[in-house]
Amino acid sequence: MKASKLLFATTLGVAALAVSSLAISCKGNEKTENNLFSIDFSNIKGQYKPGETLPLTLQNPEKKQIDSIVYYLNNEKVGTVKGDAKLDAILKEGRLGYQNIKALVYYEGQNAEATGQIEVISPVKAKMLSFELVNTYPHDTGSYTQGLEFYKDTLIEGTGQYQQSVLRKNDYKTGKAYKQISLDGKYFGEGITVFNNKIYQLTWRENTGFIYNAGNLNKIKEFQYFKDIQGWGLTHDDKNLYQSDGSEKIYKLDPETLKEVSSVNIYAEDKKVKELNELEWVDGKIYANIYQTNTIVLLDPVTGSVEGLLDLTALSEKITRTPETDVLNGIAYNPKTKTFFVTGKLWDKMFEIRIK
């Protein structure tokens, strides 16, 4: 899958987000073990935005005498009602995606639970971004680019494919590597990032990552992922790493333990955004390639909302294509010039752009 030769043109209205379609129906009416109570979904929508009101009531077909109901959303208490009264719960800003509803029902000296689920979507309408082409540089057509990041004045690149994956230091003006190491042939190299003078590198399906000395590329250690997921993109802020796995999730990781700190679900309005490939952290936001498209999305790593879309089809039309040429992938921000360097898998060019 990651070696696919597909290339999709992208526009604002044409699956530029590589999104999955969603059923606009709520999941609910899951009764308790004794089938006494269930969440009433007759007045509940399938999707909500933060700030909207969620009307919570119970179905009580056996007419039990209810003393009180405590409602929870993702195990956080949102309110209590006397008897079977309705609770209007205001959805707070926070996690997007599927949210679990639980009602703890106290009745006739006993208690029971009823559960259900809604989906919270992004309230943000993404803006179309534009770019200015600053420079064009050569890029090694043997590099199946998976990760790209500046370290001081050096462009670090991680490449993929079994038996061919390398980690290299490039002179970006010539496209030549002046130092590189090869991964064991059983690994398919993926995203990289440089944090505290160490290079972190993922692999695709091997559930394994590597840490190197950023100066000499000597391997410091390898690590196993915090759970059984694929490795796709990697970036960091001033405290944590951020990893994607091909789903709509981005995981925040502790750089020392490599354990999950938290995660966010990425949404563009009412659509999940999947296949987030190469990642780059700039000024508190994440720029991400959407695999198999010419689109980069700008997203908020706290809320998961997509805030901007950048269509780079015009750049993909400037490369010299061969049967091996693959898709756009690779974003590196140079803080000295405040410009982005973008390329693709087996592309013959790298482009320096300024995003407007």
Quick recap of the structure?
With about 350 residues, the chain is mainly beta. The chain has one helix spanning about 315; strands at about 20, 25-30, 40, 45-50, 55, 60, 65-75, 75-80, 85-90, 95-105, 110-120, 125-130, 130-140, 145-150, 155-160, 165-170, 175-180, 190-195, 200-205, 210-215, 220-225, 235, 240-245, 250-255, 260-265, 265-270, 270-275, 275-280, 285-290, 295-300, 305-310, 330-335, 340-345, 350-355.
Question: How are the SSEs placed, and which strands pair?
Answer:
Elements: E1 19-20, E2 27-30, E3 38-39, E4 47-48, E5 53-56, E6 58-59, E7 66-73, E8 76-82, E9 87-90, E10 97-107, E11 110-120, E12 127-129, E13 131-138, E14 145-151, E15 154-159, E16 166-171, E17 176-182, E18 189-195, E19 198-203, E20 208-213, E21 219-224, E22 234-236, E23 241-244, E24 249-253, E25 260-265, E26 267-268, E27 271-273, E28 276-282, E29 285-290, E30 295-299, E31 306-311, H1 313-316, E32 328-334, E33 339-344, E34 349-355
Parallel strand pairs: 4-11, 12-31
Antiparallel strand pairs: 1-27, 2-11, 3-6, 5-9, 7-8, 7-10, 10-11, 13-34, 14-15, 15-16, 16-17, 18-19, 19-20, 20-21, 22-23, 23-24, 24-25, 26-27, 28-29, 29-30, 30-31, 32-33, 33-34
